[in-house]
Amino acid sequence: MALDAAGFDTTNLRSKSWDEFEESPPRLMITVCDSAAGEICPLSFNSVRTEHWGLPDPSKIENEAEQNALFETVIKCIKAQVPIWEQMLTGQ
Asked: What is the pTM for the complete model shown?
């Protein structure tokens, strides 16, 4: 809902298993929730750069108005950071 409200097409978005990346590992893996930093990834992407960006998890908020506001804040933070990551990966 939050992504739709922010203008993102979520039609084909879905959670993916780590197994789906075994044959084609990502170039950069970024965890974005506070709790994700301590999780162990089941696959070893030896050549993949990993970064952690400790953003608060809006799903942990029970008050709907506060949750929606935090989703908006997190989306704005990610939107601002994506061009920087793209530049880092492309060298432009």
From this structure: 0.71
